[in-house]
Design brief:
The chain is mainly β. 5% of the residues lie in helices and 46% in strands. It has one helix at residues 2-10, and strands at residues 19-30, 37-40, 53-56, 59-67, 72-76, 83-88, 95-101, 109-116, 127-131, 143-152, 158-164, 174-180. The strands form two sheets. The chain has a six-stranded antiparallel barrel. A six-stranded antiparallel barrel has the order 6-7-8-11-10-9. Strand 1 and strand 2 (37-40) form a beta hairpin. The chain is flat and about 55 Å long.
Protein backbone atom coordinates (compact mmCIF):
# COMPACT_ATOMS: atom_id res chain seq x y z
CA UNK A 1 0.00 0.00 0.00
CA UNK A 2 2.84 2.41 0.79
CA UNK A 3 4.42 1.77 -2.61
CA UNK A 4 1.12 2.38 -4.41
CA UNK A 5 0.60 5.61 -2.47
CA UNK A 6 4.20 6.72 -3.26
CA UNK A 7 3.67 6.04 -6.99
CA UNK A 8 0.30 7.83 -7.04
CA UNK A 9 1.92 10.92 -5.51
CA UNK A 10 4.97 10.73 -7.80
CA UNK A 11 2.78 10.44 -10.89
CA UNK A 12 0.34 13.15 -9.71
CA UNK A 13 -2.56 10.76 -10.13
CA UNK A 14 -6.02 12.03 -9.23
CA UNK A 15 -7.56 10.61 -6.06
CA UNK A 16 -9.78 7.54 -6.29
CA UNK A 17 -13.40 8.38 -7.01
CA UNK A 18 -15.67 8.56 -3.96
CA UNK A 19 -18.15 6.20 -5.60
CA UNK A 20 -18.07 2.96 -7.54
CA UNK A 21 -20.68 2.31 -10.20
CA UNK A 22 -22.92 -0.72 -10.57
CA UNK A 23 -24.74 -0.94 -13.91
CA UNK A 24 -28.30 -2.30 -13.85
CA UNK A 25 -31.02 -2.86 -16.45
CA UNK A 26 -34.53 -1.52 -16.02
CA UNK A 27 -37.04 -4.38 -15.87
CA UNK A 28 -40.27 -2.46 -15.18
CA UNK A 29 -41.56 1.13 -15.33
CA UNK A 30 -44.33 2.69 -13.24
CA UNK A 31 -44.77 6.25 -14.48
CA UNK A 32 -48.31 7.08 -13.43
CA UNK A 33 -49.05 10.51 -12.01
CA UNK A 34 -48.78 9.00 -8.52
CA UNK A 35 -45.76 6.75 -8.94
CA UNK A 36 -42.51 7.76 -10.56
CA UNK A 37 -40.37 4.66 -10.21
CA UNK A 38 -38.69 1.80 -12.03
CA UNK A 39 -37.63 -1.67 -11.00
CA UNK A 40 -34.00 -2.61 -11.61
CA UNK A 41 -32.53 -6.09 -12.09
CA UNK A 42 -29.94 -5.84 -9.31
CA UNK A 43 -30.32 -5.79 -5.55
CA UNK A 44 -28.67 -6.44 -2.21
CA UNK A 45 -26.75 -9.38 -3.67
CA UNK A 46 -24.77 -6.69 -5.56
CA UNK A 47 -24.43 -4.46 -2.46
CA UNK A 48 -27.19 -2.02 -3.47
CA UNK A 49 -28.55 -0.01 -0.55
CA UNK A 50 -31.56 2.25 0.02
CA UNK A 51 -30.67 5.88 -0.66
CA UNK A 52 -27.91 5.21 -3.22
CA UNK A 53 -27.79 7.74 -6.05
CA UNK A 54 -28.61 6.61 -9.59
CA UNK A 55 -27.42 8.25 -12.82
CA UNK A 56 -27.97 7.72 -16.54
CA UNK A 57 -25.93 8.85 -19.52
CA UNK A 58 -27.68 12.26 -19.35
CA UNK A 59 -27.37 12.97 -15.61
CA UNK A 60 -29.25 12.27 -12.40
CA UNK A 61 -31.91 9.56 -12.74
CA UNK A 62 -32.99 9.23 -9.10
CA UNK A 63 -32.32 7.34 -5.88
CA UNK A 64 -32.77 3.73 -4.71
CA UNK A 65 -36.01 3.49 -2.70
CA UNK A 66 -36.34 -0.25 -1.93
CA UNK A 67 -33.97 -3.19 -2.24
CA UNK A 68 -34.59 -6.93 -2.51
CA UNK A 69 -32.03 -9.66 -3.05
CA UNK A 70 -32.09 -9.41 -6.87
CA UNK A 71 -34.14 -6.26 -7.49
CA UNK A 72 -34.28 -2.61 -6.46
CA UNK A 73 -36.80 0.18 -6.93
CA UNK A 74 -35.52 3.44 -8.39
CA UNK A 75 -37.44 6.58 -7.35
CA UNK A 76 -37.02 8.85 -10.35
CA UNK A 77 -35.77 12.42 -10.12
CA UNK A 78 -39.21 13.43 -11.43
CA UNK A 79 -40.99 12.16 -8.29
CA UNK A 80 -42.31 14.87 -5.96
CA UNK A 81 -40.81 12.74 -3.15
CA UNK A 82 -37.29 13.21 -4.58
CA UNK A 83 -35.30 16.11 -3.09
CA UNK A 84 -31.63 16.97 -3.31
CA UNK A 85 -29.19 19.78 -2.54
CA UNK A 86 -28.02 21.27 -5.83
CA UNK A 87 -26.09 24.22 -7.24
CA UNK A 88 -25.93 26.10 -10.50
CA UNK A 89 -22.98 25.70 -12.83
CA UNK A 90 -20.35 28.30 -11.93
CA UNK A 91 -21.99 29.12 -8.57
CA UNK A 92 -21.28 27.18 -5.37
CA UNK A 93 -24.26 28.40 -3.33
CA UNK A 94 -26.68 25.58 -2.47
CA UNK A 95 -30.27 25.49 -3.72
CA UNK A 96 -33.02 22.90 -3.27
CA UNK A 97 -34.29 20.70 -6.09
CA UNK A 98 -37.54 18.70 -5.93
CA UNK A 99 -39.11 16.48 -8.59
CA UNK A 100 -42.29 17.76 -10.23
CA UNK A 101 -43.50 14.85 -12.35
CA UNK A 102 -44.07 13.86 -15.95
CA UNK A 103 -47.39 15.25 -17.19
CA UNK A 104 -49.26 13.01 -19.68
CA UNK A 105 -47.68 13.68 -23.06
CA UNK A 106 -45.44 16.32 -21.48
CA UNK A 107 -41.83 16.78 -20.55
CA UNK A 108 -40.35 15.72 -17.19
CA UNK A 109 -39.74 18.60 -14.81
CA UNK A 110 -38.75 19.58 -11.32
CA UNK A 111 -38.70 22.71 -9.18
CA UNK A 112 -35.72 24.61 -7.82
CA UNK A 113 -36.13 26.76 -4.70
CA UNK A 114 -33.97 29.04 -2.55
CA UNK A 115 -32.21 30.54 -5.57
CA UNK A 116 -30.27 33.76 -4.79
CA UNK A 117 -31.75 36.89 -6.39
CA UNK A 118 -28.59 37.72 -8.36
CA UNK A 119 -28.96 34.63 -10.59
CA UNK A 120 -31.00 35.11 -13.76
CA UNK A 121 -31.33 32.77 -16.74
CA UNK A 122 -32.08 33.90 -20.27
CA UNK A 123 -34.11 31.99 -22.86
CA UNK A 124 -31.03 31.68 -25.07
CA UNK A 125 -28.73 30.95 -22.11
CA UNK A 126 -30.47 28.85 -19.43
CA UNK A 127 -28.89 28.07 -16.07
CA UNK A 128 -27.62 24.50 -15.74
CA UNK A 129 -28.50 22.82 -12.43
CA UNK A 130 -25.92 20.36 -11.05
CA UNK A 131 -25.62 18.09 -8.04
CA UNK A 132 -23.89 19.40 -4.95
CA UNK A 133 -21.69 17.27 -2.74
CA UNK A 134 -23.66 18.50 0.31
CA UNK A 135 -26.11 15.60 0.25
CA UNK A 136 -23.44 12.90 0.00
CA UNK A 137 -25.59 10.76 -2.31
CA UNK A 138 -24.06 12.12 -5.53
CA UNK A 139 -20.68 13.60 -6.34
CA UNK A 140 -20.75 17.29 -7.22
CA UNK A 141 -21.22 18.33 -10.84
CA UNK A 142 -23.68 15.80 -12.28
CA UNK A 143 -26.30 17.40 -14.50
CA UNK A 144 -29.88 17.59 -13.19
CA UNK A 145 -31.48 19.88 -15.78
CA UNK A 146 -31.87 23.43 -17.08
CA UNK A 147 -33.74 26.47 -15.75
CA UNK A 148 -35.07 28.93 -18.34
CA UNK A 149 -36.98 31.26 -16.00
CA UNK A 150 -36.95 32.21 -12.32
CA UNK A 151 -39.58 34.09 -10.38
CA UNK A 152 -39.48 35.86 -7.03
CA UNK A 153 -40.28 33.54 -4.16
CA UNK A 154 -43.12 34.07 -1.73
CA UNK A 155 -40.70 35.20 0.99
CA UNK A 156 -39.13 37.90 -1.20
CA UNK A 157 -35.64 36.66 -0.38
CA UNK A 158 -35.15 33.91 -2.93
CA UNK A 159 -36.33 32.92 -6.40
CA UNK A 160 -37.79 29.65 -7.61
CA UNK A 161 -38.37 28.11 -11.01
CA UNK A 162 -39.12 25.12 -13.17
CA UNK A 163 -36.28 22.73 -14.04
CA UNK A 164 -36.52 21.04 -17.43
CA UNK A 165 -35.26 17.46 -17.06
CA UNK A 166 -33.98 14.94 -19.60
CA UNK A 167 -36.85 13.89 -21.90
CA UNK A 168 -35.60 10.29 -21.98
CA UNK A 169 -36.10 9.65 -18.23
CA UNK A 170 -39.25 7.64 -18.87
CA UNK A 171 -37.48 5.50 -21.48
CA UNK A 172 -34.36 4.48 -19.55
CA UNK A 173 -33.12 0.97 -20.28
CA UNK A 174 -29.96 0.98 -18.18
CA UNK A 175 -28.68 3.04 -15.24
CA UNK A 176 -25.64 3.23 -12.97
CA UNK A 177 -26.05 3.05 -9.19
CA UNK A 178 -23.43 5.03 -7.26
CA UNK A 179 -22.19 3.17 -4.18
CA UNK A 180 -19.83 4.78 -1.68
CA UNK A 181 -16.31 3.44 -2.11
CA UNK A 182 -14.87 2.00 1.09
CA UNK A 183 -11.14 2.61 0.68
Amino acid sequence: KREITRLEIALSMPPKPEFKGVVARVSRRNLSSWWQNMTLRKGSSRDLTVGAGVVSANGVAGRIDEVGNRWATLRLVTSPLFRIAAQFEGDDRPVTFQGGGIPPGGKPFGVVRNVPHDLSPFEEKPLRLLTSSLGGTFPAGISIGFVYRLEGGQDGLFKSGRVELDELLGKLREVTILLPRNN
